[in-house]
Known about the structure:
Number of strands of chain A: 0
Shape of chain B: globular
Shape of chain A: elongated
Oligomer: heterodimer
Structural class of chain A: mainly alpha
Strand order of the largest sheet of chain B: 1-2
Number of strands of chain B: 2
Amino acid sequence: MIDLSSPEDPADGLAAVVALRRLAERLEAAEVERAMRAGWSWPEVAEALGVTRQAVHKKHAKRLIAAGVELRRR
Amino acid sequence: MFNHFTQDARWVAHDGPQIARELGDSSVEAEHLLVAIARRDDAAARVLHAAGLDEDAIVAALVAETERSLAAVGVSADSLTFSPFVETPRFGRSAKWALELALRIALERGDRRIGTGHVLLAILRAERGTVPRTLAIAGVDREALATEIRSSVVGRP
């Protein structure tokens, strides 16, 4: 439920930018993990996110390996 | 940079990245240093605790600040669950700025060591951003807290 309305006070709008950036980071962490647990490959996740395979691997591989997620190589 | 830091202040710089990671954040910011100070048991920490700001209360206010900021643009989000990042988060702009300012505050005062009180004063200096908004939500008067720190923690009789 996003209405994309601007708050009256710019301070609230800018704080929303900060909160949305943090939310996007967390959502990425959660959804990449969900996809990999569901058997997606790195190239598939990268394509869905619109980033390179190297980028998504570099950002999430260590964390998922540490969490014991079984990762597909291809 | 930590040569002149007291042992407690070194712990704050050490715990900041740990706290950022525990909270699922990818960079260390001033709010994480604030939580790290509240985790100590020195004079600065006790002033925070007396103002109702123990570790749990600050984290709760941070969550409330995020929810309120998201709500201002019509976004609501359930808490997300994911496995924690294993890399140590790097220091972000607000945390670097707070540590540098703590050093300057100590120099200006002629204090030889930089303690948690100086770091706290530096964090409280910010007028905009996550920390002042979070303190407002927690019902804490930022200026009064800084005055208390100046008089009872870093002040010299």
